[in-house]
Amino acid sequence: MSSSSSSPSPSPSPSPSSSPSPSPSKVKISKKEEKKNWLAKGNTIPKCINDGCGKCVTIRDWYPLPSFKTECSRCSTARKKNKTIEGVTIHKKKYCENMDGMLGFMCPMDRTRYHEFPSDIYHMDHLDGNHENNTLPNLMTLCSICHTRKGKECGDFNSFKASSRIHKV
Ligand SMILES: [Zn+2]
Ligand SMILES: [Zn+2]
């Protein structure tokens, strides 16, 4: 008499291979899916920084993490073409807001020549390092030189609090 003991382990048991981090799926999913999943987690797309706009910002990239621009596509297109949108105030400057050295070092650019350069060299910087914090006091237009230097000197962007902007009056 042999008692047939069926082993109760039919699960294939997915042994985690080499990577210890739980990668949800190795399958490449579309941007649309990426967006849907991200929104399903309760996230929201930040709003365009420009007063009177109210549209959602452009998403630069969804993967591996969402990377947001500060403006919607309509505003950035208008700004690059030097156009205005009725009822909307474009916040991004065509100069470096560090021209007076508010970051603790002077902007090396000639302030009389800011307008000569394409707007691409001016970046929107989030003072607190949080790219979803699109409130105007948290945003500053920096030329790419100042932006890079700020990033290097401050290292941790999060340590650069708005309060440290007013260290000297
Ligand atoms: Zn906009
Ligand atoms: Zn600058």
3D structure, described in words:
The chain is an alpha+beta fold and 169 residues long. The protein is built from three helices and four strands, in the order αββαββα. The chain has helices at residues 31-40, 73-80, 144-154, and strands at residues 59-61, 67-68, 122-126, 139-143. The N and C termini lie far apart (94 Å). Residues 2-7, 15-19 and 156-169 have low confidence and may be disordered. One zinc ion binds next to helix 2.
Our Rg estimate from Cα atoms comes to: 24 Å
Note the beta-strand portion: 5-15%
Number of domains: 2
Spatial order of strands in the largest sheet: 1-2
What is the CA-CA span between the terminal residues? 94 Å
Helix/strand/pairing category: alpha+beta
